[in-house]
Amino acid sequence: MGVVIPLGEAASDAGIGKLWSLVRTDMDRVNQAIVARTGSDVAMIPEVANHLIESGGKRLRPMMTLAAAGLCGYSGDGHVKLAASVEFMHTATLLHDDVVDQSDMRRGKLAARMLWGNEASVLVGDFLLGQAFRMMVEVGSLPCLSVLADAAAVIAEGEVMQISAAKDTATTEDDYIAVIRAKTAALFAAACEVGPILAGRPKAEMAACRAYGTNLGIAFQLIDDALDYGGSSSTLGKNVGDDFREGKITLPVVLSFRRGSAEERAFWSRTLEKGEITDPDLDTAIATMRRHRAIEDTIERARHYGAMARDALELFPASEHKAALLDVVDFCIRRAN
Amino acid sequence: MGVVIPLGEAASDAGIGKLWSLVRTDMDRVNQAIVARTGSDVAMIPEVANHLIESGGKRLRPMMTLAAAGLCGYSGDGHVKLAASVEFMHTATLLHDDVVDQSDMRRGKLAARMLWGNEASVLVGDFLLGQAFRMMVEVGSLPCLSVLADAAAVIAEGEVMQISAAKDTATTEDDYIAVIRAKTAALFAAACEVGPILAGRPKAEMAACRAYGTNLGIAFQLIDDALDYGGSSSTLGKNVGDDFREGKITLPVVLSFRRGSAEERAFWSRTLEKGEITDPDLDTAIATMRRHRAIEDTIERARHYGAMARDALELFPASEHKAALLDVVDFCIRRAN
C-alpha cells in the first residue's frame, strides 16, 4: 500500500472504502470548489496549483472534515468550503515545503518548483492560503476560523522547529514528536474539529474530534517516516531516502542514534549533521536501522498514537461515520506493511 | 527623503508628523502587539521576524489603519490588532519577496534569507501570516476578515502576475498598473477600509477609504519604482538598480521602451529579457530614461493617483485625521524629490 492513491482508486481500497462511499457526494462538491478557487486570470496560478492538486493525493484531510461533520450530524453546507480550505492549506504547505527542502519530486512527479521555479511555488502557495481564508470567511463561523488560523500559525512554527533541529542528531523522541504534532498533526486536528463546531456540538465532542485528528496525524507522519526508509520509489511517490539525503532527523534516526554504537553515531553525525553522503550510505543507514529495530519500533509508536485516536472516538455512539473514521486509523498504519 | 525612516525619526518629518502625533498612543499598542505576536518557543522565529521588523520600516500601513479608524470616529479596540495584522501581512510579503527576487539587501540590512536561509524566510513569513489571521479572528469582525483575506489572495496574485510579466518588455502601462494595484495597493486599500467597517460607517465611507488606500498605494509604488533608478543606496535602503538587475519591468522601463529607438529597445531586451548585464548598463539605463523623461513622467503618473487619493477623502468633513491622511499623499510623492 503506497502513500499515493489516485482519487478514483480510493473506493476500491478496503481501508478507506467506507469513508469514501460516505463522503463521495460531498467530495464532488469539495472538488468543484477546489477547481473553482484555483482559477485566476493569471494563467500561471491554475497551472502550478493544478499540477500538484491533480497529481493524485488522497485528499484525506478534507475527507476527515466531511466525515467528522457527518459524525456530528451536521446538515448544513459549510463543511464543503471548510474541507476545500483544509486541502488548500495542505497544498500551500507542500508547495512551500518543496522550496524549503529543495525537493525535486512530489507525488511521483517533478515538484512544481522544478517546472516553474521556487518563486512560483512560494507565491502560488501564498495565493492558495489566501483563497483558503476567503472560503473560511464565507462560511462565517468565527470559532472555525479561529481553529484554522491557529493551525496555520502552528504548522509554520513546526516547520521552523524542524529546520532548527534538522541537523541535530541529539534530537530526542519528545522533541521530534513536538515537531510533527505541529507540522502535521495540527492540520488533521483542525480538519476534524471544525465538524463538531459547525454542528454546534458540546465541547467534549469538539475535544474528542480534535484528539482523534491529532493522534491520527502523528501516526500518519510516523508511518511516512518509516516508509522513507522502507518503501520503494514507485509506491512512495517520492524517492526513498529523501529524508536521509536532506539530513532530516526523523524517529527512525532518533531511535537508531540512541541505540547505536559510537561508530554508528559517528556515521549518523557524518551523514546527517555534516551532510557528507556517499552512494552506499543509504543502504548502511537502512541496515543499521533494521539491526536496531528502529523502523519496526517507529511503526509500533504509530500504533500507540493510532490507539489513542481510536479511543478518542469512543465517546460517540456506533455509526457508519464512526466506523469509517476508525478504519482510517488502520489504513494509515497498514501503509507500512 | 529616503524610503527608510527609523521609527523614532518619523515624528520629526513634516510629511507624516501630523499622522504620527495622532496615532502615537495607538501605535505604541500596535508595536506591543507586534512584539508579543512574533514571540515563539522556537527561537529562530522571533530572530528572523525581528531582524526585519526592527529594521526601521515606517509602519505606514498600520498607521493608515489607525488613522482611517480615527477619521471614522471609531472608539473601540479592534483597530490595534487589525493594524498589527496589516503589518504582519506586509512583513510576510517582504520575507517571501526576498526569496522570490533573490535579494541580498532589505531596508539597508542583509536580507533575512542571507542570514538564515531561504527556508527560514518562507516559513517565518507563513508563521506571521498565520499570526495575522489569528489576530483578525480575535477582533471578530467577519467583514474585516473578508477584506483582509481578499487582500492576501490578491497580493499573491499580483506577485505571480509580476513574475509572469517580469521579462517581457512588451508590458503595457495598463498591465503594469494592474500588477501594482494587486501587489501593493490591495494592502493599502484593505488597511484603510477596515477603519470605517469597524466604526460601522455607511458603504460610501468604506468605499472612500478603500479608494484613498488604493490610489495612495499605486502612487507609493510608482515613486518606489522611480527611486530605484534615481536614489542612492543610503537613502533607499536597497541597492539602486535592484529592479534593473532583477529584470523587473517597472513603469520607467515601460515608458522608455515605448518612447525609445530600435537600438534602445534592443538594449532593454538584452538587459532585461535576456539578463545580459554588464557594468556600465545601469548608467546607460538611467541616462536613457532621463532622455525620455521616463522617471519624471513616472512621478507625474504618481501625482495623478495621489490626486485621486486626495479626492476620495473629500467626502469627509475637515478633521485632524483627514488633514493627516492628506499629508501622507504629499509625503509619498515628495520622496522622489
From TrEMBL, chains A, B:
InterPro entries: Isoprenoid_synthase_dom_sf, Polyprenyl_synt, Polyprenyl_synt_CS. CDD domains: Trans_IPPS_HT. Its EC number is 2.5.1.90. Gene3D superfamilies: Farnesyl Diphosphate Synthase (1.10.600.10). GO terms for biological process: isoprenoid biosynthetic process. Its cofactor is Mg(2+). Keywords: Magnesium, Metal-binding, Transferase. The keyword Glycosyltransferase does not apply. It catalyses: 5 isopentenyl diphosphate + (2E,6E)-farnesyl diphosphate = all-trans-octaprenyl diphosphate + 5 diphosphate. Transmembrane segments: none annotated. GO terms for molecular function: all-trans-octaprenyl-diphosphate synthase activity; metal ion binding. Belongs to the FPP/GGPP synthase family. Supplies octaprenyl diphosphate, the precursor for the side chain of the isoprenoid quinones ubiquinone and menaquinone. This is Octaprenyl diphosphate synthase. It comes from Lichenibacterium ramalinae.
